[in-house]
Automatic annotation (TrEMBL):
Pfam families: Ribosom_S30AE_C (PF16321), Ribosomal_S30AE (PF02482). The gene is raiA. Signal peptide: none annotated. The lineage of its organism: Bacteria, Bacillati, Bacillota, Bacilli, Bacillales. GO terms for molecular function: ribosomal small subunit binding. It is found in: Cytoplasm. InterPro entries: HPF/YfiA_ribosome-assoc (IPR050574), HPF_long/plastid (IPR034694), RHF-like (IPR036567), RHF/RaiA (IPR003489), Ribosom_S30AE_C (IPR032528), Ribosom_S30AE_C_sf (IPR038416). Gene3D superfamilies: Ribosome hibernation promotion factor-like (3.30.160.100), Sigma 54 modulation/S30EA ribosomal protein, C-terminal domain (3.30.505.50). This is Ribosome hibernation promoting factor. Required for dimerization of active 70S ribosomes into 100S ribosomes in stationary phase; 100S ribosomes are translationally inactive and sometimes present during exponential growth. The keyword Ribonucleoprotein does not apply.
């Protein structure tokens, strides 16, 4: 069963908003044969220009579903988030079920017949395998995160992988949408 943690910033989460979010996002459960025990983390933020930003993150066993949407209308934003999450689940379920069938295991995701023909066409389009068109190999140089950011900027990339000099682990620096930088550190 999917549980919900809903937080509002500059906005009070009313029962109507909570019920709408739980009703819409809760419909994702129909895609699973055994509904996972998961918690949907929902952040709703309003800005001074009355724009609303909705972020939903649902960590599952083998995948994390995440969607973010900005909209002037809170309820329309929730609908758009739900559509994005459903597309992610449909795309992922096709791949996972195919792998399970190849191994002779039962399907993880339920087979759903969509009444809308557009959804069926979209599912078939997403059923194709990813094609890697370029491959690179390089050695990871030991450096600190500041050096990695400088190197990333010099190369003009949005991310950079390096070996952290202090931890000797693989890390990634990346440029965020707000122009600031993020750091991902690996753990064992």
């Amino acid at each position: 069963m999917i549980r919900f943690e809903i937080h509002g910033e500059n906005l009070t989460i009313t029962d109507a908003i909570r019920n709408y979010i739980e009703d819409k996002i809760g419909k994702l459960e129909r895609y699973f044969n055994d509904v996972p025990d998961a918690t949907a983390h929902v952040k709703v933020k309003t800005y001074t220009n009355s724009t609303t930003k909705i972020e939903v993150t649902i960590p599952l066993k083998n995948v994390t579903l995440r969607a973010e949407e900005r909209n002037d209308d809170l309820y329309a934003g929730i609908d758009l988030i739900n559509s994005k999450l459903e597309r992610q689940v449909r795309k992922y379920k096709t791949r996972v079920n195919r792998k399970h069938r190849d191994r002779g295991e039962p399907d993880v995701f339920a087979e759903i017949t969509e009444p809308n023909n557009n959804d069926v066409k979209e599912d078939n389009a997403e059923d194709t395998d990813f094609e890697i068109i370029r491959s690179k190999q390089f050695s990871l140089k030991p450096m600190d995160s500041e050096e990695a950011v400088l190197q990333m900027d010099l190369l003009g990339h949005d991310f950079f992988i390096f070996t952290d000099r202090e931890t000797d682990g693989t890390s990634i620096v990346y440029k965020r949408k707000d122009g600031k930088y993020g750091l991902i550190e690996t753990s064992e």
